[in-house]
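for the writeup, i need someone to sanity check this before i put it in the appendix. the sequnce is what the collaborator sent (i think, or maybe the updated version? ugh). structure was predicted straight from it, no edits. if anything looks off just tell me and ill rerun, i have time this weekend
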Amino acid sequence: MERPIQEELKEESQPPSGAAESTSEEVEDTSSELIEKHPEVERILEKLDPQDKDVLMTSMRQEMYSGPLPHPDHLKGYAECYPDAPKEIFEMVKKQMDHRHDMDSKRTELQKDNLNKHYFNLNLGLICGFILAFTFLISGVVLILMDKGGYGLFVISTVIVSLVGFFVIGKRHKDDETENNDSNESQEPE
């Protein structure tokens, strides 16, 4: 296994055309990081001349870039191949961002509409329930006034028990939802 690594390092140790000069401090920092990660590299580096070691470590530089646009150096490379490429890339990224913003605003609008419909249905249910309960209460009072006291009290007590049960169950259900939402928020990764 040591043989192929040495061959790779010999191939990479050739100075690239137009390679930038680097200070020995930078090379030492990079080599120490590399040696910590890969101990077999230390044995190979010990066999190289200091000049070859500098060239090798310079050529092993890694750069990371992230974003919606290519790295500026890459844009220059695209411009060398196709002069209008950077302009087209910027336009493409702008169109993608506009599309994403448009989709986000549509999603937000749909969520808002669904929430409005949900609250409308809740309010309509409360109003209809109030009208129905009030109608039964009035019917119970009318029955009592017509000397049908037993039936009237039965209707009134049924309405009262139903309303109390509805509010108790509704409160318990609301508490359970709040508890579930709190536990879901605490489980979400940050």
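The mean pLDDT is 76. The radius of gyration is 38 Å.
thx in advance!!
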